[in-house]
Amino acid sequence: MANGVTVGEAADMVGLSVHTLRWYEQEGLVEPIDRDSAGRRRYCDDDIGWLRLLIRLRSTGMPVREMRRYAEMVRAGDETLTDRLQLFVEHRERVLARIDELQQDLAMLDIKISLYGEMARAHQESLPVS
């Protein structure tokens, strides 16, 4: 990406809409994106990497307010490293708890699949042969 990519290309690369990318910038999740001589946004590799991180944080359930807080801490510099670490440790604990919940949900689904599979086989076997 020698001169960066357009907002549309960046949106395609990270799987978000153009509207969402602009909203991320408006909300302070992304620093203002550099613009070309015509005033169009040009996303560089670092911008794309940052967006991918934000997408992961969001997909793991981090609230936007915490994502914004994280972005602010990064911009504030190294004096926020301990706070950033704490933010990620706490978020990791929430992710692990959600994984545990999902594993319990999956176990219930497996029980139902097994039960209905057995019932369907028994039903098929009880049908008269034609």
UniProtKB/TrEMBL annotation:
Specify whether Glycosyltransferase is a keyword of the entry.
Answer: no
Q: Which SMART domains match?
A: HTH_MERR
HTH merR-type domain residues are 6-73
UniProtKB keywords: DNA-binding
- Recorded superkingdom: Bacteria
Known InterPro entries for this protein? Answer: DNA-bd_dom_put_sf, MerR-type_HTH_dom, MerR_fam
Protein name from the UniProt record: MerR family transcriptional regulator
Origin species: Paractinoplanes ovalisporus
